[in-house]
Amino acid sequence: MLNRQWRSLAWKLTLAFVMVALISALFMAFLIDWQVRRQFERFVSERYESHLMTELRNYYAATGSWRGVEVVFKRSQDPEVERHGGLRRFRPVLLNAEGQSVYVMPVESGPTSGPTAGDEQAPHIEAPILVGGQPVGWLRLRLPTPTLQADPAAMDFLRLISRTIGQGAFFAGIVALILGIVLARTLTRPIQALTAATRAMAQGALGMQVKVETQDELGELGSAFNQMSSDLARSMALRRQMTADIAHDLRTPLSVILGYTEALQDGKFQGSPTIYKILHEEAQQLGRLIEDLRILSLADAGELPLQRTPMAPGDLLARAAAVYQAQAAGQGVSLQVTTAPDLPFVDVDAERMGQVLGNLITNALRYTPAGGAIHLLAQVHPRDDATASRSTGSLSNGAGGQGDPPIRTQVLLRVEDTGSGIAPDDLPHIFERFYRADKARPSTGETGLGLAIAKSLVEMHDGSITAASTPNQGTTFTITLPAVGQVSHP
């Protein structure tokens, strides 16, 4: 269990935060310590330089030359500096105005006439000595390394600084550890919730939801999971309902067929045209249901073959209207076709699209009373470039040349009726399989799959289908299909 905790993302994130903080703190501690030592060295040197420069300036102003200047160096030794190495640590060198060496502090004792070997290459500071605004010489102080090793007070000061920096780095590490744990838990808590919800879903608890507390990538992940979980739960509910509906729709005609065949076999009924007709109609109902299920399964698998050819939208509507014209007239319903001029062609399978329009017209006839009307319309609708780029046809515009760009339009096919309409609560579900607004499920010969099939077939044509309805006023189904460039003339 402990090994598993150490392998967790929370511990890895915590360790990462702490490592970054500690490395940064140690680096800053090293940099600050180095800078403090370096600047402290310079401060000690500059303090001595300032004191010695004043003495040398006064000496030259009084004597007019540098002869006998060694007495200044002996007299101006700072007690604090001299106590920890004196002038010999800085190896002061006095140069005249021409840059010639006048005096060099000896290493042991006694003056020298020039600098010792290595002084020119050693780090040093150099400043002009001004008398009356004119340079009369130069003072050079070497910055030996190290300069403070023999100075207990300076070393104590630097140790105090180093200790303070170390304590700061230690407390920074503690703060980094605390913040790392807090941040790691903040980042991993949504992931742990998602993991628990996923395991629950794997055990059958569909529809699990997680709390989304942020708007960042983890929040988006949680929202996407919630949407997926809801869709999966709804999909499973629809699948169970579909299974029950299929069983119901199969059982009803089978019960009729089995009842009549058993009665005929037992001699309770004598065969008659009426009985044979009933048996035939129930068998046809079974055949329609099986065929609808086959089409849906092929469409879901992407294996339903389509024989697509460019076709005029007006011809599609005219063919569908011709099939149902007699039925509409028998019901006292007006069936009309209106086509906009100069419509582009659509690339469709005429038989499958005829099946879609037939399903819509059949629904319209079922719910439109005598004296009502069904209107089939075809028109052009502009679309944006992104949509057009996915489905524009390869045919050229009839008005342009071979190299003209395709017409970026969509064709809308509408089926409008003046029937009873669809209730607002039912409208979002009408394209679901086996969904019927009439919960009594009347025996009208319908399978409850017509609109689901229509939706699948339209989507296979790279289109979409929507519905709008007002109760007691009518319903409008709109099919949107990508257009190809050739223009049809009604």
Please explain how this structure is put together.
By secondary structure, this protein is an alpha+beta fold. It contains 11 helices and 11 strands. The two termini are 77 Å apart. Mean pLDDT is 76; it is low at 80-85, 108-118, 146-150, 384-407 and 440-444.
Give the structure's gist in a few sentences.
The protein has helices at 2-6, 9-63, 70-75, 79-83, 152-202, 217-266, 273-301, 313-330, 350-367, 385-391, 450-460, and strands at residues 93-96, 101-104, 124-131, 134-142, 308-311, 334-339, 343-349, 373-382, 409-417, 464-470, 474-488. The protein is α+β, with helices and mostly antiparallel strands and 490 residues long.
Give the end-to-end Cα distance, rounded to a whole number of Å. Answer: 77 Å
Radius of gyration: 48 Å
Beta content: 15-25%
**Kindly state the mean pLDDT as a whole number?**
76
Could you give a short account of the major beta sheet? 7 strands, mixed
Task: Estimate the helix proportion, in percent.
Answer: 40-55%
Number of helices: 11
Classification by helices and strands: alpha+beta
| Strand elements, count | 11
- Assembly state (oligomeric): single chain
List low-confidence stretches.
80-85, 108-118, 146-150, 384-407, 440-444
SSE run? HHHHEEEEHHHEHEEHEHEHEE
Basic shape: elongated
Short key terms for the protein model shown above:
single chain; 490 residues; alpha+beta; seven-stranded mixed β-sheet; four-stranded antiparallel β-sheet; 11 helices; 52% helix; elongated
